[in-house]
Structures are given as C-alpha cells and as structure tokens.
C-alpha cells in the first residue's frame, strides 16, 4: 500500500509543480513561447480551463483560478488516498 501512496504522492508533486511553474512563467514575457512553455501549456491548460471559465480574473488581470485548481487537486488526491486505504485495509 505504501508503494501506491508513494506513486500517488510523486505524481501529485510533479503536476503541482508543473502548474506552479506554468503560472510563474506567465509573469515573464515570451517564456511560454519556447518548447518547455508550450509543453507545459499542453499538459496544464486542459486542467486549468474549467476553473478559468468559472472564476473570472479580478480587476481583469489577477487570476485566482490556479490556486483553486491546486486546492481541488489536493482534495482529489486526498480523496483517492482515503478510498484506496479503505479498499486495501
């Protein structure tokens, strides 16, 4: 069971930091135009898009949807761990 929890933890951390780096890249001009920026965009944008549709940016520039997306991701991982611990005993 600890191996499954370890895999879930590693995957969560990887995706968490992918989202974090993608958000930080938005502060720097032209960084999203390189290969890594485009790759992160293809991996992260499908997850962030529904949150951006629900949560509008404040004052037209401040986007809080990645914060909500990270919180939902954390809740989903904790729920998955709880279900797995319940099923595996």
TrEMBL record:
Q: Does the UniProt entry include the keyword Transmembrane?
A: yes
Q: Which domain of life is it from?
A: Bacteria
Membrane-spanning residues where? 7-28, 67-87
InterPro entries the UniProt entry points to: CCB3/YggT
A GO CC annotation recorded here is: membrane
Q: Which Pfam families match?
A: CCB3_YggT (PF02325)
Q: What is this protein called?
A: YggT family protein
